[in-house]
C-alpha cells in the first residue's frame, strides 16, 4: 500500500491505496465521487476526464499514486458558490447532452480547451474534443455549447464578475 | 471550488433557462424547453447503476471463452475460491438448475430452430465472450484477480463465421439442431413475377450490412439487492426495458414475479443494446439469491464488445424492376441475417421488421421478400437503432439511385415519379401497411432548396470535366419508417411475444402539483421534459409543477418500455389521454362546486369557469385540493383525480424525410469528407424542437458511422479483432460535419397529438445518403458500389480498380467476403 495526499474538489484526503489503483477507481470507490463515470478501458472515450492541477486528464489512464500531492477537480467540484460553471450552463442551454454519460468528461475537457484557447474556431473545438466520445448528440450541440461558452468569455475567465 | 452544490440555485438556473419565448401555462407543446434532466447530469449527481453502493455489496466478474467454438471438458473454480477476498466461484454446472435459459420473445416462424441459451455455458461455448464461470469477491480488483485462477479446459471445435459458409451446414454452431438455418420467413405483396415480366429494366445488387457495435457510452451494469429471508429481489440494471426484464427474470429463474422489482436508474444510452435480457442479469440474480448478499456486475468496455449484442450483419440481394420511362414495377429481396451464436430477446424479429420497409415510399405492383436467419460463431445480433429499417432503407435507396443511373434519369426525378403523392394518403402499400399521412414533395422541396442541389450538380460536372483530383458526389435518401411500435394485434400476427401498448398515470397532488407516471423508460430521450410539456398543456398547470416518474416497476407498475421510436407516439400520447381523464372528472367536481351544469363549464389554461359568468371560476389546483379534502364532492364520487390510461394504437406511425449529402472524395488518397449534409425530417407535430433536433443530429451521426467508420471484424477463427475502442472507430467530433436540419410538419392522423416519433429517423436516413454520395463521386471510374464502411483504402481501391469496381462485381456474384473474413472465404473457408 502507498500513502497519498490529494485534494479533490476542495477537500484534502490522506489515504492508503494499492499502488495499482486507478485514479478513477480511487475517486469513485474510495471517495464516493461517482460523478466521474467510466466509459471504456482503453483511454479512448474520455468519460472519466477530470482536472489534475488545472489540466484535463483521463482518470482511468493514471494511477491514484500519480495524483499524490496534486489537486483534482471533478465535475462535482466545477460549480462555484452553488451555481453551475458557464460551460455547464452552456451545455444546458444548447442541449449539448442527451443521455449525459459522456457529459462530465466532455464538460471538463471543454473547460480545459477554453482555458488554453479562449476563442476557438468550430474546427478547433472539434479537434480539441477529439478524445471525448459521445454517442447521442452527433457533437453538433456540444460544439455550439463550447462556442457559446467561449462567446461568454469574460464570464468564463472571471466567473465572479458575472454575478 | 465548493464541495457543496446548491440545489436551489442550480434548479433556479435550470428553471430560468427554461423560459423561452412566452411559453406560459397551457402553451408548452412546441416550445424548445431546456431539459429538466440536465441538472443532475451536468453536475455529476446522476444515478448510474455502477454508482450504486450497498452495505455488503459484492462484485461479480465473469470468465469468458477465448475460443469461438469448443467443448468444455473441465471447469475448476477451486483455486479461485481460495483467493483473498473471494467469497464464491461457480461454474456453469454449479448454477445450471437455477439459471434456466435466456429468452427469445420473437419466434418468427412456428418451426424456428431455437436452441437453448444457458446464461453460463455448461458443455459448449459458441462465441468468443460466451460466459463460462463466475467469481464473487469483496471488490472489483479482487474479483478481476480471481478470474485468472479459474481453470477451464477447452476442446476446440470447427468454427464458422461467414453466413454463406454457414448455410452449407458443414460446420454446425448447434450440432444437435443439424442446421445453421434458424428460419426462412417468406412474404409477398402483389405478384412480383408478373410485375417483373413487364419490366424493361431490372437492376440487381448485393449489399452488405456490416456488423456494428452499438457502443452506448454507459457500459452495461447490474446490481441485485436481495432480502433473502423474504425471497424478494430488487434488480437495478442499465436497461431500456425494466418492465419486460421483470417478467422475463421471473419466467427464467422461477422466482415469482411479485417478488421481483426492477429499477432502471439513469441509463446512459441504449440504441437497442439495452433492449435485452442478458446472461449477467440472470447470473447476478441467482448469485445474490445463493449468497444472500447484494452483488454488482459492471462490464468493461472490451468485455461489452463481446458480451453485449451487435447490430446489422446482413447480406441483401435486391432486385428492382421498372419500365424504361422510370415506373417502378416491383422489388424482390433475398435477405440473409446473421443471428450470431444464439437468439437473444428479439434477434429473429429484427430483419422481419425490415420486410415492410423495402418498398419504402414507392408505389409498385409486386414485392417479394425472403429472409433466412443464420447461426454463426459470433456474438448474437439484435436490435440496433432502427432495427431492420435502416437495412431496408439502405438497400432500396441505393438501388433506386442505381436504377436512375441505368435509366439516365435524375435520381430525384425518378423518386418523384414513383413516390406516394401527398393527395394519395392514406395509402396502403404493397407490403400491406397503411401510411396515414406524408408529404414527400414538401420535405424534398425544402431539402433541395437548403442543399443547393442544382449548384452542387453543376460543380460536380465541372470537377469531373477538369479531372479534379477531388471529386464531388451527391447522395439522396427519401426515406420513411414504421415507428411507434406498435399495435398489439399486429405484433401478435408477427408472432412477437408481447403487446405494444403503453401506460400512463396522472397523480394530482393536494397542492396542485402533478406526478406523471409513465411506462416508458428513457435513457437520453428527455421524456421527463417532453412528458411534462404534454401534461402541463393538458392540465393547464405550469411546466415546473410536473414531475415525471419512470423506470421502476414498483412506482411505474405498467409499461412496455422504450425502443423502436415508440415512446412519444404510444407513451406520450397515453400521458395526454390520462390527463384528459383528470380534466373530465375535475370538470364534474367544478360544476358541483360552482353550482352549474357540467355542460356549462369551460376549461382554459387551468381554469374552470361557468359559461357567461367568468367570475364563477375555480383553478385546477383548487379542484385538486377540494378533491383531497373531499368535504363537498358530488354524491358517490371517489375522492381522487388520479387517472390511468393504457393506449394500444391502431396503427404504426410513419415519419419520413429527405436527407441529402455532398461528399468530396480525394481520388489520390481515397479520403472522404462530408461537404454538406441537409436533413429535412417530418416527424409530425413536435413537442420539443430542441429534443427533436438533437435526436436527428445523433441519428445522422450513427448512420454516418456505419457509412464511413464502423465495422465489427472477426478473423476466421472467430476472434473479434475490433475488440476495443482502439480498433472499433466510434466517430469523434473531428470525424463529423455540421448538419443542416429542418422540418416539415405533416401531423399523424392516428393519434390526438399528431406525433410520429423521431428516435431512429436520422440513423435510418443517413447511411444510404452518404454511401450513394461516395459512389456518385467516383462513378466515372466504373464504380457502382463501395463496401461499408467506405474507408480510404476501400475508396482508393475502387477508384484505382484494385479490387474496387472488381470488388463490386464480386459482391454481386456473391463471392465477396467482408471485414476480416475475406481471407477465410477466398481460401475456402475457416478451419
What do you see in this structure?
The complex is a heterodimer of chains A (163) and B (831). In chain A, helix 2 crosses helix 5 (140-151). A five-stranded mixed β-sheet of chain A has the order 2-1-5-3-4, sandwiched between helices. By secondary structure, chain A is of the alpha+beta class. Chain A contains six helices and five strands. In chain A, 33% of the residues lie in helices and 15% in strands. Chain A folds into two domains: 2-76, Roll (Ubiquitin-like (UB roll)); 86-157, DNA polymerase, domain 1. Residues 157-163 of chain A have low confidence and may be disordered. The termini of chain A are far apart. In chain A, strand 1 (2-8) and strand 2 form a beta hairpin. Chain B is of the alpha+beta class and 831 residues long. Chain B folds into four domains: 7-49, no CATH class; 50-157 and 215-307, Alpha-Beta Complex (Aldehyde Oxidoreductase, domain 3), CATH 3.90.1170.50; 311-485 and 651-826, Aldehyde oxidase/xanthine dehydrogenase, molybdopterin binding domain (Aldehyde Oxidoreductase, domain 4, 2-Layer Sandwich), CATH 3.30.365.10; 501-647, Aldehyde Oxidoreductase, domain 4 (2-Layer Sandwich). Chain B has 24 helices and 28 strands. In chain B, the strands form seven sheets. A seven-stranded mixed β-sheet of chain B has the order 3-5-1-12-9-10-11, with helices on both faces. Chain B has a five-stranded mixed β-sheet with strand order 7-15-14-13-8. In chain B, helix 17 (527-539) runs parallel beside helix 18 and helix 20 (689-709) packs across helix 21. Chain B is globular. The termini of chain B are far apart. Mean pLDDT of chain B is 93; it is low at 18-25 and 804-831. Chains A and B meet through helix 1, helix 2, helix 3, helix 4 and helix 5 of A and helix 1, helix 2 and helix 20 of B.
